Fold:
Amino acid sequence: QVQLQESGEGSVQAGGSLRLSCAAGRGTSSWMGWFRQAPGKEREGVAAIRSDGVPTYATSTEGRFTISQDLAKNTMYLQMASLKPGDTAMYYCAATARALDPPLALSAIYYNSWGQGTQVTVSS
Structure:
């Protein structure tokens, strides 16, 4: 497993932007991803990025969110723009060593390393 630490918690108004970071400890990951969970809802995949830089996005976030990574810093980022109140949730970063087809990389069941989460609140 890989130790993960998110940062970038914040509150913004609808239409605003926010960037989350996820610092990873030692370990090898095939995929790293961002997931979110709102109260009373299931955890859902937001975006994921393969070790070679190939990204995949949920339909709800594609075009608004951008996932990236800095391998030298062992850090993954999620740049969020055009935020909506429906984006309000606890955001978690996760990592897996499993080789996955891109669509499966948005499924939480394939990840075995998780951060503590960081809160994103979008007000209308």
Q: What stands out?
A: DSSP finds no helices and eleven strands in the chain. The mean pLDDT is 95. The first strand starts at residue 4 and ends at 7.
